[in-house]
Specification:
With 219 residues, this protein is mainly α. 74% of the residues lie in helices and 0% in strands. The protein has helices at 6-26, 37-49, 53-76, 80-104, 106-117, 121-150, 157-170, 179-183, 198-214. InterPro entries: CACUL1, Cullin_N, Cullin_repeat-like_dom_sf.
């Protein structure tokens, strides 16, 4: 294998990776991405073998951090009626991108991140979304989710489920902010039911039935 100098890495190898990451981070579901996964995979492998893992990891983290900071600013500018849906899109788009980005950097993960840093690339990248997007928006997002929950069909059930499950994946302790909401989508996050609360459960069920009927659904 030819020697790859740091200048080669910066001028030839990283720009290829940078471009591919850009496309993966901004693709929509079902989009065709005109990149060669084999070429990118090979590029990462060569850089790892030539001892450029530390620089490559640093560049990757910086690249994705900058992207997430832009995503966060765009969400901040969203009106309340679009905020939930746009957060859902941002979360889904990022998690979808990780399904491609993490495997492409598998050699760096195995021979640098796991070995020298005692961490995992996927965990690191999920943490970036938590810190640069979710943490900055959770206190605006949660009241809107609770309001949507009390107004049937304001948002689709799939959107609500995606966001709640995503937030739980990012930081399980956020369950404490809205236990009843999380319990609808995450098993066993609430204590077991007790007999003394059966009447309350029945009242909640009757309220839901009334809301369904008011919105045109029959029993």
């Amino acid at each position: 294998m030819n020697v790859i100098t740091i200048e080669d890495y910066k001028s030839t190898y990283w720009p290829k990776l940078d471009s591919a990451i850009d496309q993966l981070l901004t693709q929509s579901p079902g989009d065709y991405i005109p990149i060669s996964y084999e070429q990118i995979y090979s590029c990462v492998y060569k850089c790892v073998c030539q001892q450029h893992s530390e620089q490559m990891y640093s560049d990757l983290i910086k690249k994705i951090t900058n992207h997430l900071e832009r995503v966060s600013k765009e969400l901040q500018a969203s009106p309340p009626d679009l905020y939930i849906e746009r957060f859902n899109i941002a979360l889904g788009q990022y998690m979808g991108a990780l399904q491609s980005i993490v495997p492409l950097f598998i050699y760096m993960n195995k021979f640098y991140i796991e070995t020298k840093l005692n961490r995992d690339l996927k965990d690191d990248l999920i943490k970036l979304f938590t810190e640069h997007v979710a943490e900055k928006h959770i206190y605006n997002l949660m009241p809107l989710l609770l309001e949507a929950q009390s107004t049937p069909f304001q948002i689709t059930p799939s959107t609500m489920a995606n966001i709640v499950k995503g937030l739980y994946t990012l930081r399980p302790e956020w369950v404490q902010m809205a236990p009843a909401l999380f319990s609808k989508f995450i098993p066993n996050v609430l204590p077991p039911a007790v007999e003394s609360e059966l009447q309350e459960y029945a009242a909640q069920d009757q309220k839901l039935q009334r809301e369904l009927i008011q919105n045109g659904f029959t029993r």
